[in-house]
């Protein structure tokens, strides 16, 4: 098995297990623990040492991992990579029980800008975080994941909607209501009781008495896979943006220890990033201030550092090529994409993109450029938010992807591996982070 094949196998396994932002952070924590990183807590004193490897989490859904350079203290510049742990999905409402025609359904809310049509006729499961009360009165939290397909959203047959292929629209309140089971007679199904049973099954000995609240996502149980006649593609849920979390983590594993480096994976990017755990919150800036340990040190750190915002890019779809600028349509398996926007929807500038073009040439990785059509609206990333909040020079980059925000997305099988190589080159770059 080649290095790229091993990488994609690991990527598929990571995404399969990282079914929610909470599970994504849990998976990353396990890998950091195994690599000798020391866990820090925001409410405790830190004793950071040159060469030390550390991480901390916030809300259980965002993570920062960093290494203190042996040869270059953080004040001489940190090489930073950012991604996000959340993906558009369906989330269970607080009072979700819907009983219709003898069926038990779940009320859900759309999280982020989800592409809704692909959610029909999929084998769905449920995962997330529970808050529960123990029999001794103590309040605790735990993660659960049903793993098995326990829900489905059946399509309406075309015989009952002859115009479905021309004009069917989706009402998210009425049309996206997952089906759980068929009720027997006057049977009443208590969703919180169902969660309590699952909690006790996954966490024996938790002494849970009742489930108080939850943050639960539905997800497609179809496993990620390398697909295509020649294995050209990776198909999976949540490629946006767990692919970037994984590539950032893999790059961090190849850090040589000389420079100071950091990986931040924020929650809530898909809904604007304004939260305690989001990029528009204080998590990163507060961490950097503690690393710098003084106001002067923090100013030096931010001035001499660089952030790479890694988030998927829109590959040029062969059936919809006219949706792209003719000179800026990224192709799958032709390399990571520099994302550029004159209106600062992306944070790349000539200085940061110039450095990455140099690093890519040294690493033997091809780069592409993406600029949205001038007559179309442009999306955004944590890049401009981080640049504005922290004041650090920033680059936006990503792997070209099809079907972004669908329940199952598609990327090239070479691109994520190339991005990980490029990010590792960036982490180990010994020079100044900017033009002389």
Give a description of the structure.
The chain is of the alpha/beta class. The protein folds into two domains: 3-87 and 237-427, Aminopeptidase (3-Layer(aba) Sandwich); 89-220, Aminopeptidase i, Domain 2 (Roll), CATH 2.30.250. 27% of the residues lie in helices and 27% in strands. It has ten helices and 20 strands. The chain has helices spanning 3-17, 21-34, 164-167, 191-202, 239-253, 283-292, 295-304, 350-363, 382-390, 415-427; strands at residues 38-39, 53-58, 62-67, 78-84, 89-100, 103-111, 124-134, 139-145, 179-182, 208-220, 225-227, 233-236, 260-266, 306-310, 313-314, 337-339, 368-370, 393-398, 400-402, 409-412. The protein has a nine-stranded mixed beta sheet, sandwiched between helices. The protein has a six-stranded antiparallel beta sheet with strand order 8-7-10-5-6-9. Strands 11-12-20-19-15 form a five-stranded mixed beta sheet. A hairpin with a 6-residue loop joins strand 19 and strand 20. Helix 5 crosses helix 10 and helix 6 crosses helix 7 (295-304).
Largest sheet, order of strands side by side?
1-2-3-13-4-14-18-16-17
The helix content is 25-40%
- The assigned CATH architecture of the largest domain is 3-Layer(aba) Sandwich
Give the termini distance in whole angstroms: 42 Å
Strand content: 25-35%
Order of helical and strand elements: HHEEEEEEEEHEHEEEHEHHEEEHEHEEEH
Major sheet description: 9 strands, mixed
Whole-angstrom Rg: 23 Å
Total individual domains? 2
Query: What structural class do you assign from the helix and strand content?
Result: alpha/beta
Strands, count: 20
Q: Can you tell me the CATH class of the largest domain? A: Alpha Beta
Report mean pLDDT, rounded to a whole number.
95
Inertia-based shape: globular
